[in-house]
Amino acid sequence: MAEQKKILVLESEKLLAASVVSILASRPEYDVVQTTVSSLSCLDQPGGPQPDIVILEKDVLAANISAVVKVTDRYPRLRLIVFSLSNSKVHIFDQQTVQVGNASDFLDLL
Q1: pTM for the model
Q2: Which pLDDT tens digit goes with each residue over 83-100?
Q3: Which contiguous run of DSSP H or E holds residue 23?
């Protein structure tokens, strides 16, 4: 079995964060290492999570844009997945945009 991908969920809405975590919990290849409503500064703390993937909502990205730029410079292999609830689109940091209709479409992006 392949190594689990470690995921950090950064979301200001607790219900939305819980929904994302619930979807990921059904898949053994993913391990949610932390869910936070604060910022990406947790990545800079000693002993902080070292995720392979960060999942966040578009509005959270906008509020943390300078931290996102710093983190992606420091961790170039980090995959950043940004989603928007208003149009069911998911943006992967490499500027790819994918329409997501259900949970399995979302999981396929990871």
Answers
A1: 0.74
A2: 877 767 666 665 566 677
A3: helix 14-25
